[in-house]
Amino acid sequence: MDPGIILTSFSASLDNLEEVLEPLIAKTLSQNTETLETIDKAKLQVLVAYVIQDLVLIYLKTRGLDPAKHAVTEELNRVKSYFEKISSAENPQTRGLALDKAAANRFIKAAINEAKAASEEASSHAAAGPSSQRTGNNVDVVIPFGKHTRFTHVKPPRNERPENSDESSDDDDDEVKIVDDVKSLQIGKEPEDIVPPPPKNLPSGSTKRRRAMDPFAGTPPTSLSFRC
């Protein structure tokens, strides 16, 4: 390809570039950015830096130098990284869809550790048996009953008596006797009119009843006999 044609095309491109940059060159950078929004200011500053670095890269090529070995290449790559940051700032919703692998790994490890701890605790309770579960508030308390000494005639319930006891029949007889004595009391009678029951284990023919004595009548007279 004829080098003259390339130079002519390059000269025309420079003329177009001067026309495009004329509004920006006529004012300072601070004057051009004072009326812009924050995101637009960032775009303009990054574009200016990129154009300058790119022009230096072109100049190195025109001088026959390898730009890959020059520091301008590293600086140009740094400026390009800001284009990605500006794009992420313009579209924050796409940033939220990104997966944070480090945070996800932390959550997964924490869940696994909690599951292992719960499983080990359940296994320890199962190995300890039901006896270990009765500690704490679930303790059966048994209150023993003392033996009374005043009411000796009261017998314990039948379900508390020992089996095959020889006194079971005697206890039943005593209970029947107590009930009979209670029934013998009549409402409205004086205490002296109540005849006590005959003593136990006495023959029926030898039972004698004594006439009730009135305590208010005094002692009845007795006859005294003297033998000369």
Automatic annotation (TrEMBL):
Residues 147-156 have a biased composition (Basic residues). It is found in: Nucleus. Residues 165-175 have a biased composition (Acidic residues). InterPro entries: Exosome-assoc_fac/DNA_repair, Sas10/Utp3/C1D. Residues 147-228 are annotated as: Disordered. The keyword ATP-binding does not apply. GO terms for cellular component: exosome (RNase complex); nucleolus. One of its GO terms (molecular function) is DNA binding. One of its GO terms (biological process) is regulation of gene expression. Transmembrane segments: none annotated. Keywords: Nucleus, RNA-binding, rRNA processing. Belongs to the C1D family. Required for exosome-dependent processing of pre-rRNA and small nucleolar RNA (snRNA) precursors. Involved in processing of 35S pre-rRNA at the A0, A1 and A2 sites. PANTHER family: NUCLEAR NUCLEIC ACID-BINDING PROTEIN C1D, SUN-COR STEROID HORMONE RECEPTOR CO-REPRESSOR. This is Exosome complex protein. It comes from Hydnum rufescens UP504.
